[in-house]
Amino acid sequence: MTSLTDSVSITFSRETKGEQERMKLFQHLRQSILTHRKRLTSSIGVGLLRNVGSRRGVCASSDDAELKDLMEYMNSLKNYEKSGVPKDAGTDSEDGFDLGRMRRLLELLGNPHSKFKAVHIAGTKGKGSTAAFLSSILRAEGHSVGCYTSPHIQTIRERISMGRFGEPVSAKALRSLFHRIKKILDRAMEVENGRMSHFEVLTAMAFTLFAQENVGIAVIEAGLGGARDATNVICSSGLATSVITTIGEEHLAALGGSLESIATAKSGIIKHGRPVVLGGPFLPHIEHILRDKAFLMSSPVVLASDAGNRSKINGVSMLNGRPFQSCDIVIQLERDLKLFIELLDVKLYMLGTHQLQNAVTATCAALCLRNLGWRISDECIRTGLQQTHLLGRSQFLTSKEAQAIRLSDATILVDGAHTKESARALMETIKMTFPEAGLTLVVAMASDKDHLGFARECLSGGHVDGVVLTEASIAGSKSRTTAASLLRNCWIQASKELGIDVIHDKMSEHQDLSVDQLICLSKLGNKPILAAEASFPASLNTANQILRGRAGDRLGIVVITGSLHIVSLVLATLHHHG
User: Fold this and answer.
1) What crossing angle do the helices spanning 99-108 and 198-212 adopt, rounded to 10°?
2) What is the pLDDT of residues 275-290, one digit of tens each?
3) Which segments of the chain belong to CATH 3.40.1190.10?
4) Which residues touch 280 (CB under 8 Å, ≥6 apart)?
5) Boundaries of each Mur ligase central domain copy (predicted)?
6) What's the pLDDT score for residue 48?
7) How many CA atoms, within 13 angstroms, populate the side-chain half-sphere of residue 493?
8) What is the CA radius of gyration of the chain?
9) Of the given ranges (5-9, 35-39, 300-304), which has the lowest mean pLDDT?
């Protein structure tokens, strides 16, 4: 086996019982906070950030002491990442999240979101990668850039990045800000009867940091949907451009129950007169929904998947032990806005056709900004794309890191894919990069994902030697974690639907066999083996057994996927081992 070393004015939602009293209280508190806010502005100052960690990640455990008070406060708030999002909460309806609550909090903080220009990014998949590409492009040109994304993998600091290298905000800066605005947050909680959420407070903190650090432009990723997301408080005058990457069937219940309602919710970030970049490709009727909203808002549309965009992957190569794909990015658009760029042999370390599309979408957004007067050269677009890395997306571990998780004879790829679309993209990337490799998957997923669809795409996407189903906590809780045994049942069902014979210990004739014996049967019959291990360390041991028993002289690949939370487990394990 061989081995191989990502200014808005305050508005209120429709009055309900007690709303007038809350408004009076809010106005009183607003006046009492003005003096405190002026002190805050002068005392926070500029330059609170410092470079931390490395380009591969940041140290989470060192945050524990410095951010103890902040994390205790944040953990006391309603966290929908932990509990799940209520039905229709992301729709622009009576059941949707109350944006008035977010606007009132920002008003108390001095409307920090009115002090910088923003690019607002929504979409089912590709938001984080597109935000990373665009932020890197802007930094390469020398712009002062803030970036706000979610969720985080190792530390909450990852969600807010600034500075020359786009490093996560320092624990010192975050702690300092928290203590300075704590009284404002407490008073906002009083106004809102305790209903401020984890995401709303963190979003407000990010916007406040961006304002205090005088960022010229902020790249802001929507958390859920768009129309009622806490980030959707940027008005037309503050928005440079909006971006909608893709539309897919994720968070269905929270976003109205259909692909059409999801598109409608995400189109809520389109603002009057501001250009919108559509990533895609989209189903024709979904693109029609997005274009209709843009027409109503008099917004120019840039379609990144337009036939005039002739971008392609030329091949995959290695540089310093890391794979990259050589790409040509050629964009020529005449409709709404005239945009053109030709970049040949761009080296992308974010692999796959989906990442090429994300890079093209980010490039279209950069060209829109250039069209609006922002200084962005072709060469800085190239440099920014080539320098983009993102934790947990197409991330290959080094040989030392593989050894730390006791998989020293394998190439380890960690990727947070968790939908059937992202599973398909992941399998296509593996097939393109390592066509002859022996493949073992380690998978953990949240309870609200399409487990069966994910399994189908993985099993049909290439030759899989083995799959180990395991479990990973989500936001520190098991409440949304899918049991490994339930995942195994889904993979068994998927294999039956696809007509793929698999070996597993729930088969009556195999119940008394050891893992090694099952692996031997799997190899003799050239059939994938399915195993379930609730313990993550045990799942890695089983993956190692499958790898050694099945790969032979082929390159052995272990792909750890299904959730960004299992990626977090991997990185936490690496940190524990130093």
Assistant:
1) 40
2) 999 999 999 999 999 9
3) 20-45+93-305
4) 246, 287, 303, 304, 305, 357
5) 121-366
6) 36
7) 11
8) 24
9) 5-9
- Sequence-separated (6 or more) residues with CB below 8 Å from residue 374: 143, 217, 240
Given a contact cutoff of 8 angstroms between Cβ atoms, the answer to whether 98 and 196 are in contact is no
Q: What is the pLDDT of residues 424-472, one digit of tens each?
A: 999 999 999 888 888 999 999 999 899 999 999 999 998 899 999 999 9
Reference 84, options 365, 482, 376; nearest CA is 482
- Give me the pLDDT at residue 14, please: 38
Query: Dihedral of the CA atoms 198, 199, 203, 209 (nearest 10)?
Result: 40
Average confidence (pLDDT) over 491-499: 97
Specify the pTM: 0.87
pLDDT confidence of residue 194:
94
Reading the block at residue 292, the tokens are: 């209709």
Separation between Cα atoms, residue 282 and residue 286, nearest integer Å? 6
pLDDT at 11: 34
Count Cα neighbours of 523 within 13 Å in the Cβ-side half-sphere: 15
Secondary structure of the chain: what % helix, strand, coil (to 5)?
Answer: 45, 15, 40
**In residues, how long is the chain?**
578
CB 377 within 8 A of CB 553: no
Burial of 510 (0-12, 13-18, 19+ CB in 10 A): middle
Q: Decide yes or no: CATH 3.40.1190.10 for domain 20-45+93-305.
A: yes
Q: Nearest CA to 11 among 179, 233, 164? A: 233
Return the minimum-mean-pLDDT range out of 134-138, 372-376, 424-428, 435-439. 435-439
Q: Where are the beta strands (DSSP E) in 367-482?
A: 395-396, 411-414, 438-443, 466-469
Region 490-494 average pLDDT: 97
Selecting from 3.90.190.20, 3.10.450.50, 3.30.450.20, 3.40.50.1820, what CATH number does the domain 395-576 have?
3.90.190.20
User: Which residues, 6+ apart, have CB-to-CB distance to 188 below 8 Å?
Assistant: 29, 104, 105, 108, 196
Q: What is the per-residue pLDDT for 41? A: 41
